[in-house]
Amino acid sequence: VPFGIKPGHRARASRRRLSPLRSLVLAALAIALSAVAGGFAYFLPAAATAIQETGQVVGVPSPSPTSLLFSPSPSPSPAEQGAFTVLLLGSDDDSKFSADQVLTQSMILVRVLPATKEVTMLSIPRDLYVHLSTGGYGKIDGAYSYGAAGAAIATVEQDFGVHVDDYIWVGLLGLIKVIDAIGGIDIVTSNPVMDDYYPADIYGGSPYGYQRVAVLAGPQHLDGIHAMQYVRSRHSDIQSDFGRSKRQQQVLQAIRAKAKQLAPSDIPALAAAIGGELKTSIGLDKVARLVPLAATFDNPDAIRQVLLLPPYTQGGGPDGSVTPNWGAILPLVHQYFA
Amino acid sequence: MIMSRFLLAVGLAILMVVTGVTSYFYLGSRQSKVVAPPQKPTAATPRAQAYSLPGTIYLEQSGALYRFSAGRFHQLTPEDGWTQPALYPDGSHLLAVKRSGFFSDVYVLTPYGNVTGQLTNNVAPPRSSWDTGANAWSFYPRLSPDQGTLWMSYDGPKAAGNGYFDVDFAVWAVPLGGSIRQGRAWTTANTYTGGDVQPVPVPGGIIYTKYTYDQAGNRVGQLWFTNRAGSPGKALTSTAAGCLQPSVSPDGGNIAMICTYQKQISYLTVATWNGSSLGALQTVISDQLVAEPIWAPDGSGIAYLAPGGPASPFQLWFLPKNAYHPPPPSPIPPPTPTPGGPHNGPLPTPTPLALPTAPPVRPIQVTTNLGFDGTSPLAWLG
């Protein structure tokens, strides 16, 4: 006889009638369990994507002496409590490039001050001629191609003297899919964006070919492909990459405005769209903390946009690069990112 | 007993499957409406209390032209790049743009969408294996009041040679039915701005939107008026106001426009027009992202496009005239003499009458769940 069971007990139990109460409890338990299972199945793909693409571990070399100059203060002011810096990276990731050897067409350093609900976005020109963390000098957009996110972060940290807490990398196709997944964005395009030599590498079928684009001016609802044309075109912009950076910041803010309208049920579709096109070092736990925080940033005037136009930079560098005026840039960066 | 337990188990299993599947699909159905694609105008009806607009409005969604009349939409063209309808001054035909990947052309259509003619021919072969060719864009077509001249924004002719990156529109005037060689550029675009767009013929010239650089180097829209080809004309609004998309009232005495003030905002603005200059700008709507305002032919208000909700596709809205031209307050009646003969003693102080305050006139949302193109002007036939 098994331990704890009296002889004849099982036989009596099996003959016991099922009381209606027990049946009801069982049914309620079954409903609760299966409802949770249905919800679990609904969010499972999103959870898998989130686990796969968040919390990426990056190896960042030790900070250089320059970055130590502006290392975060050990006792931050009240306004700096909880502040953090994220490096946004956007890349061409079409068939011209192999994975993790892409150029970062867009680099935006974002400083978030939760205490004062202020955000500063500093667009780094992709052609900025800098000392790369992997050695030598070159355009800063090449840093990622030499050593993935770690090299890009290290290059920004050593040259700009900032500490980067996390990074988010998005591929071109990812941005298109994200904007489509959230149902498009509303934006006021500042002027007709015309380009007769726009890359036909996404849907044009030719990684090295060109297409014409004309994004007309004014308020409009843009889908992913047209939003991409708006932020990526630069040939007809006399400010070239700087003008493009300004448009990128507009689109980021429009995405943020739209994201505030989303419901938790939209997460799986969004995750499916992002799949493989987004990587971030931000862990799931931090994402969970940031989502409600982001919803409280509702004052567009509290978002500061910084472009490194002349005199912070000047053209004419090697290989068509832009030469930084560190004497002007570093105090500016220190003002907002220290 | 065993049978009843078996039945209970089967019942619970079915219950669990049904609940699990229901839960899954319920969550799917709870996706926010903001990500739902717009409905076709012909599939969706205006909301129950839809405002009945006089006449017929022509507008565009997803590359198809629609006419909106008596609360119903009728599709005029397939979803094939059609945009920017404009009426002949006599209302007999429509002009519209058909946009392809590398070029766009202006066509003439009947009010029911049948194509009766092509006014431009902007397609061109590539100049090399990788070149985009000498293709051109034509947008924002309008006809002169005498229906003899086609006004449009045109980015041709192309400069010779590859690698020419500056692509700007200029306002062109072309004899209706003539070739572009018979046409003439009326404006000279500022380089690397996108150029001059949205010409509106008015007596003595055209009003159009010119993109320019302000002192800080920002590109911004500005309304201009010019009365002869090649003349720079004169600016009607400041660069700080950032105004575009002009629309002339039926009586010719007012201009509606949108002004962005170089931000991600778009205010509906009206101003008087005396034939050569604008009066003070009056902001009429400042809490919506307004696009493509157009006056009702009977002067009863202004229709425009704006999102139906935060960060959502553009719907058709209507602002009654009282919102920007409130009726004068009713005259205050003089105090009524106290009946009952001569008054002894001091006269009672008359109670001050409160001025009647009309409730604020709010814009009326005419459509829901649709997604009109905010860059395609509306055309309104009375």
How much helical structure, as a percent, in the residues of chain B?
under 10%
The computed structural class of chain B is: mainly beta
The oligomerization state is heterodimer
Query: Helix proportion of residues of chain A, in percent?
Result: 25-40%
Total beta strand runs of chain B: 24
Give the CA-based shape of chain B. Answer: globular
How far the N terminus sits from the C terminus of chain B, by CA atoms, comes to: 80 Å
Q: What's the helix-strand series of chain B?
A: HEEEEEEEEEEEEEEEEEEEEEEEE
Q: Give the end-to-end Cα distance of chain A, rounded to a whole number of Å.
A: 73 Å
State mean pLDDT of chain B (0 to 100 scale).
88
Q: Give the radius of gyration of chain B.
A: 28 Å
- Tell me what portion of residues of chain A adopts beta-strand conformation: 15-25%
Mean pLDDT of chain A: 83
Largest interface, with Cβ-Cβ < 8 Å? A-B, 67 and 83 residues
Helix and strand sequence of chain A: HHHEEEEEHEHEEEEHHHEHEEEH
| Overall radius of gyration of chain A | 26 Å
Tally of alpha and pi helices of chain B? 1
